[in-house]
Prior knowledge:
single chain; elongated; binds copper (II) ion; Immunoglobulin-like; 23 helices; alpha+beta; 3 domains; three-stranded antiparallel sheet; 12% strand; 36% helix
Amino acid sequence: MDTKKYYQSEEAIEANEADGLLKEKHHTRTSTLQRSKQAPIYSPRLWILSIGTVSVFIIIFILAISGVGGEIKSIISDYFSSGDVVDESSYTLILNLESPTYGALSSTSILDWDYIAEPYKPMTYSVESLLSEESEMLDLDDVTVTWTINDEEYSGKTVNVTINETGGSLKSCSVKVVYYNSDGEKKIYKKSFDVALKYVRREIRSMSDDELNTWLDAMKIYYTTSTSDGQEKYGSKYFSAEESLYYHLNGAARTDCDHWHDGAGIVVKHMSFTLAVEQSLQAIDPSITMPYWEYAQDAYLYDYWFESTIFDDDVLGTASPTTSDHSLTTGIWANIEAPDGSDYADFDVASEGTLNPYINAYGYLRSPWNNNPTPIISRYNYTYDKLASDVLPYPSCHTMFSCYNVTTLASMHDCLNGNTHGPVHIYIGGTWGQTSDLWDDDDVTFLQGIDKLLYFKMLWRMGYTRCPDSCDEDKDSDAGICVCAVPDEYIDTYGAKYLLEEAGIYDLIKTNIGKDSDGTIALKVLRALEDPGIVGEMFSSGASYDPTFWPLHGQIERMVGLKRLKVDLGEAGSFDETWGYDTNNYKYLRGICDWSNVADVNDLTLPTCTMGDDVICDGHNEDDVLEFTNFLNQDESYTNREFYNLIHPNNIDLPYVYDDYEFDYCAEYDSYYF
Ligand SMILES: [Cu+2]
């Protein structure tokens, strides 16, 4: 609401100024006309002199009463005062700018700006010390201080000032300290300083209770208010959690390829997404920032990862609900339901080149392969009947450091895609609901873990396994009908081994299946992979509908940011920022499948797949344009590279900084020095 008022008043000021300018021009023309009609009363020289004097007074008066005249006013008062303005190079005036809630900001030690103020929050400006031109530490009880901060004047050694403007600009400020020395001489000490106005993203556990609750309240509004209702109430930058889910599904759940993950777009897609949602929350309350979750700390702080306070009922809810369908029914996020997908049912496969990415067989906005009949968002700390921690290790400082300690952006992209936050997605999401006794057969137990879902998606994108487009909860699931399956026609025509080879899976598993001369194991593998079971939101393309998604990606940006800052300082060796994605992990579709020749999911025509590392899925190229725009309110849009440039931590236009870019906890807990 305040944002709106602010913008209105800005616009009003601009309109008034333009109006005033026009009036002045008009007035000049009129008086010229009037003058030409009248006979001169004074001599021309006298007339010019008196007009000149009046004009100077008018200009001084206008400057003095206007907001920008603060400096002029002090120039005038200094001119008339008898004090000495002390030569600035002869004294040391130390200032302090900090948040009354959080104190000094750590990241100023590595960022370009000495002073950072947070928008829409009171910030405390104070004089810390003044070492005079005679090397005397002045007693601050004997000085008077006036400040000019963002064109407003304040007085006092310590002042609290709130700037109600959005982040991403530099504010010129100054301070004047007046001191009478023992001889009664008035001394004037001045300092000009710049303040970067920046939102500060904080680690979720370091947020004050007030700010955490403000964020949670806005998040609840974001989850429960439609884009159209919200825009009416909060302005055009608001969009809903449902719309966010639509974006994430549109990126990750298409059958042609994954436009958001497994490629060079991973970082910019998720950071632009997070910023867009942060600005949606700021439309509700302009003081809000998106917290980040430094989850690798949890490996040291708790005996078990799920004990993290982020999973408290009054924060983001339990990590693994004990309900039979793993739905989250306790705490402040209880019973948040995946949106009804009927608005998204109308989809043209031929023109889109993909099957409908938005709805599952029960009509919910969810990964189309995730046949979860329960609308409520779900979490389970088992993946294919294995405890999350037995499936893959929880990310620790070793993981973080291995991603940081690389020499190219391309390899950092790969590491951040799968190694750091990827496991957290899987730990929280989990899987269940497999209808067969799959793991009783030793020939396929090697698939028990995350690989099963990754391989499933490779088969699914190539059309080899098909998921039902509608299911009846009461009948189909009991009968085992509502599952994805490889059509028998394909197995009869191509054989199981061929399908696994074509999908790029066979190469990755051949050592696990041994000789398999008659192909019986290949067939068992294919049958073990054809259906993913039910997958918790966070391990699916519907991840953004679980609130734990939102603080999860800040760590990625902090790490890339730290690397860029240290490279600029000459402290990180070389870092080649050529756009790209270097990987040895090929557990995803390498290429693009064009589905435009397939009528619908029941049409067993196969899509046309073009495979290879050089076939880049749209969304991951350097010059591909991001779906999120207008971060600086200039109707601007961004290519991947342009957004990467925007998020350099020292870019003044970027509306936010992180409270800290370091990974000091890794030095403290685990001897990793970034
Ligand atoms: Cu994602």
